[in-house]
Amino acid sequence: MQYRLEPDVLSSLVSSNFELVGSCRRQIRGWGMTDEQTNKGGAPLETRFSGSVPENYDRGLGPHIFDYYARQIAERCAALNPACVLETAAGTGIATEQLARALDPGCKLVATDLNEPMVEYAKQKLAYRDSTEYRVADGCDLPFDDNSFDAMVCQFGVMFYPDKQAGFEEALRVLKPGGTYLFNVWNSWASNRFAEVVFDVGAEFVPDDPPAFYKVPFSYHDTGEILAALAKAGFVDCHAEELHHELAIEDPALLAQGAVYGNPLFFELADRGIDPDEVLQRMVHSFGERLDNRLQLNAIFVSAKKAG
Predict the structure, then answer these.
(1) Beta strands per DSSP E along 207-281
(2) What is the per-residue pLDDT across 120-132, written as a single tens digit (0 to 9) for each?
C-alpha cells in the first residue's frame, strides 16, 4: 500500500542491570514517554543504555525485527548514489552495517545516536569497517552545517523524537538541495501483534500499573500526519509505503531476552519490583501460544526530498 501527499497539500543480567536503574532515570528528550506513561510522576526513562542493554537489544531484537528492514532502507539509500550519508538514531549499528555494505565504497557514512553507549557498541561491533564515522548527536538538534549530506537515513527512530517537527526541520537543514530523507516507523499494534503481546505480558504482572514503553514505538503511524509534517518542514515529493514482513521466531528465548533486557521495559519492571526473568519466561510461552512462534511485521517507509 502506498501513500502520497502532493507538496501543495502536504539471570546475571538481572543483577548487572538493576545496578543501572538509579543512574538511568533523569530528565531527557529521547524516548518520548510522558510522566503519565511511566506512571512515576517523575522523570521519563533515560535514553542512555549501558551495561548489557545494547548487546541484548542487538542480539535479541536485531535478527527478529530489525535486520530485514535495515536491508530494505540501505538498498533504497544506495539506489540514490549519494556521496555523503547521515544516519540518525543509529542505535547499535544494525542499519549502519547494511548501509556500509550497500553504499559505494567511496561514500562517506556518518552514524549518530543520542545514546553514547549504543554508539560505542556499534563502533566496536563494526570496527572492521573503519571508514564509518560515529558521533553522539540529537536528531532534533544536529551538530552539522547546513547543506552537508546527500541523503539522511533514520531506522525506527523518528517515533521517539519528542519534537518531530523540529527533527524534520533539522533533516531538511543538513540535507543538500535535492537531497533525500529516508526513514521508517512501525505501523500500529494491529499490524505488529508481537508488540501487543509484549505489552500484555508486562500488564499481567502489574495490571493496575502496566509498563508503557511498548506503546511508544507503535504510536506514530498516521501517514497523513507524517506527510503533512514533512511538507510543513519544507520537504517536497513526500511518499509513504507500507512494507510487510513475516518470519518464524527461530529462538523465542532470544527474542524475549531482547524484548525484556534490551530496552526501557527492563527499567519499568525494575521500578515495580518485578523479576524480569519471570516476565521473560512468560513471554516465551506467549510467543508460542498467541503468535504460533511467527512474527507478522509491518512498517511504514517514508521518503521526502529537499527542493533544489
Answers:
(1) 236-248
(2) 999 999 998 888 9
